[in-house]
From TrEMBL:
Annotated PANTHER family: 1-(5-PHOSPHORIBOSYL)-5-[(5-PHOSPHORIBOSYLAMINO)METHYLIDENEAMINO] IMIDAZOLE-4-CARBOXAMIDE ISOMERASE
Species assigned in the record: Lysobacter arseniciresistens ZS79
E.C. numbers: 5.3.1.16
Protein name: 1-(5-phosphoribosyl)-5-[(5-phosphoribosylamino)methylideneamino] imidazole-4-carboxamide isomerase
Catalytic reaction(s) noted: 1-(5-phospho-beta-D-ribosyl)-5-[(5-phospho-beta-D-ribosylamino)methylideneamino]imidazole-4-carboxamide = 5-[(5-phospho-1-deoxy-D-ribulos-1-ylimino)methylamino]-1-(5-phospho-beta-D-ribosyl)imidazole-4-carboxamide
Gene Ontology MF term list: 1-(5-phosphoribosyl)-5-[(5-phosphoribosylamino)methylideneamino]imidazole-4-carboxamide isomerase activity
Active site: D15, D137
Entry GO CC: cytoplasm
Metabolic or biological pathway, per its Swiss-Prot or TrEMBL entry: Amino-acid biosynthesis; L-histidine biosynthesis; L-histidine from 5-phospho-alpha-D-ribose 1-diphosphate: step 4/9
UniProt-listed GO biological process terms: L-histidine biosynthetic process; L-tryptophan biosynthetic process
Family to which this protein belongs: Belongs to the HisA/HisF family.
Subcellular location: Cytoplasm
Keyword terms of this UniProt record: Amino-acid biosynthesis, Cytoplasm, Histidine biosynthesis, Isomerase
Protein encoded by which gene: hisA
Length: 258
């Protein structure tokens, strides 16, 4: 393991709908939990706990298109110093430009990455693979195949995870976010088998685990499975997991995943 290799990333998540911090259950907009903190107050708390990254999602735009959180993004980066990975409703090249101009370190592209892979592969070339995170969030069908819903997970794209992942790996993808939708907001643990399989398909991609993470053991297990980062949502919001404890444990481990 090289001492110069990138560190494991812990990314606390803030999902925003109608200006409020929320969490959805399995991506279902009808099963929403709202939290009292404002997005800015929560981001400040995460920064104070030692976070370096934030995962910010525009849930309204994820379904309808048209990212709406640029003013919040500018405020977050200016006031907290956090590096922000953000997306939701990114449909056009100008959307990527706007988010980067507003202070995003990485722009997350989800639905369009499924619908127009050649176009998004072009963005990897134009903006650089370090500035784009492709989100291939998956749901397993009855035959055991991993499919990729779009539009905030509300529409069936008919596209499978494996061929699209191979396409992006060949295009030079660096950052991949993958959520097992069935585990999102369920606190049932990450899908380590899914992540191990993805690592065999695209070993050179930095994979972020998302969905189901409950505690420090789950973060450690994702790291041991070869993930390069973990997105933490509901467990932090409900106080089941302390961000400072996770960051301290990660620092004690020392270095990137092997």
């Amino acid at each position: 393991m090289s001492a110069s290799a990138p560190a494991f990333e812990v990314l606390p998540a803030i999902d925003v709908r109608e200006g409020r911090v929320v969490r959805l259950r399995q991506g279902d907009y009808a099963q929403e939990t709202r939290y009292d903190d404002t997005p800015l107050a929560l981001a400040r708390r995460y920064a104070a706990a030692g976070a370096r990254w934030l995962h910010l999602v525009d849930l309204d735009a994820a379904r309808a298109g048209g990212y709406t959180l640029a003013p919040l993004l500018e405020l977050l980066t200016a006031e907290t110093g956090l590096q922000v990975q953000t997306g939701g409703g990114v449909r056009h090249e100008r959307d990527v430009e706007r988010l980067l101009e507003a202070g995003a370190s990485r722009v997350v592209v989800g639905s369009l990455a499924v619908r127009e892979p050649a176009r998004v592969a072009g963005w990897l070339r134009r903006f650089g693979p370090g500035r784009i995170t492709v989100a291939l969030d998956a749901r397993q069908d009855r035959a055991g195949r991993w499919q990729l819903p779009t539009s905030g997970w509300t529409e069936d794209s008919g596209t499978g995870l494996e061929p699209l992942l191979r396409h992006y790996a060949d295009a030079g993808l660096r950052h991949l976010l993958c959520t097992d939708i069935a585990r999102d907001g369920m606190l049932s643990g990450p899908n380590l088998d899914l992540y191990a399989w993805i690592r065999t398909l695209a070993p050179g991609v930095r994979l972020q685990a998302s969905g189901g993470i409950r505690d420090r053991a789950d973060v450690a297990a994702a790291r041991a499975a070869g993930c390069a980062g973990a997105v933490l949502g509901k467990a932090l919001l409900e106080g089941r997991l302390g961000l400072g404890e996770v960051l301290a444990a990660d620092a004690a481990t020392g270095g990137p995943p092997c």
